[in-house]
Amino acid sequence: MTILYEQWQQQADQLVALLGEGTHVVGTADELVERVNNDRDDYLVVLGPSTPLAEAVGFAQQCRLRRPALGVVLLRQFLDVNVMSEALRAGVREVVDSGDPAAVLAACARSQDLSRQLASKPRTNGHALPASGAPLIGSSREGQVISVFSAKGGVGKTTIAINLALTLAENGRRKVCLMDLDLSFGDVAILTQLTPERTIADAIPVADRIDETGFRTLLTPYRAGVDVLLAPVQPQQAEEIGRELIGELIQMAREEFDYVVIDTASVFTEHILAALDATHHYVLVTTPEIPALKNTRVALDMFDLLDYRREARTVVLNRSDAKVGLTHGDVEKVIRMPIAGHIPSSRDVPVSANVGVPLAVSHPNHPVPTALREFAAKRFEDGSAKPKRGLFSKGAR
Asked: What is the pLDDT at residue 321?
């Protein structure tokens, strides 16, 4: 039996016609979780083009450990070397162009043949599969990853990332991990007055064997519900941090926290691409200035090339009430995308930066954190706007 996970009905119909009878279609993560958990006779899961890369990678990683005979084939509308490399490292058997029917059928046939061979051999590595009826996937909630990105420095990206993390935590009601992945010039420590006794650089010596306990030792507690993974103190240490380590740390954070807010660098480095690949929500910060808007448009075009989901992107206009001769309509015309969040200008922002106390801490009802709170409630907490659950989040609220 083949399981097809595809959320787009038209695409699902086309793939069923290709894969043939015996293909069981699931359109939600919960249905996929239930199917994989309950039916041990399935040997092939085809993840359709609508599946986010982060979910596909996480799914393959768990299947590789717990159901090695279950093959995972990932379909993409556009093939990218980095995407293929990450997926294959995670345990996806094949990454195939969804527009090439012959290649799709050949990949599925190869995977099923390998599954039959694996299923006929007893496991001897000592890692027993869960008992029949025990949950395979979905036994733990996984948090949502929010990457705050800007294509130009000086637009308030880090300030927004910090205040957004604090807003989402709601004084400890939720657990939020704030990651500073501007590895060469991160400012989160300065803007929060945190002493970088532990940083991501401390993971370098144990990058190939870091576990949950090791991950927790990297975190610096900040406020109720918020822990921070700080950037290295020495910029040159960034060169020693691999893409794989970034992905591993993000996945561990997802398993521990309700939200993972990532403050990115304003460049498409391997580190940032690893973070963006694992992201559920892309928050692009810009200001009403032509250079910033031009760079935002370029970044959005790059997101298209990287095949990052358009519905997962939102643009936040910082200093939105600045009198600079551009209306909000002008801004949207330049970036060719609606503005989802409007953050007002305030002299209190640089003051809070200089003293190292975010406004969400010192003045939670200030217009700036209030605007971020309204944006977060609409984008991340409202049921209609909340992104689809990850493949392992059955039972999550």
From this structure: 82
- 236-289: per-residue pLDDT in tens? 888 889 888 998 999 999 988 999 999 999 988 888 998 998 899 999 999 999
228 and 110 in a common domain: no
Instruction: Please spell the DSSP secondary structure of 226-240, one letter per residue.
Output: EEEEPPPSSGGGGGG
Percent of the chain predicted with pLDDT > 90? 50
What range defines the domain where residue 294 resides?
Answer: 144-381
Q: Residue 47 and residue 16: Cα distance in Å, rounded?
A: 12
CB 148 within 8 A of CB 283: yes
Shared domain for 160 and 257, answered yes or no, is yes
Q: Is there a single domain that holds both residue 96 and residue 234?
A: no
Consecutive H or E run containing 176: strand 176-180
The crossing angle, in degrees rounded to 10, of helices 53-66 and 270-277 is 80
Flag whether pLDDT at 364 surpasses 60. Answer: yes
- Coil, strand, or helix at residue 158? helix
Check whether 394 has a pLDDT greater than 90. Answer: no
When divided into structural domains, the chain yields a total of: 2
Model confidence, pTM: 0.64
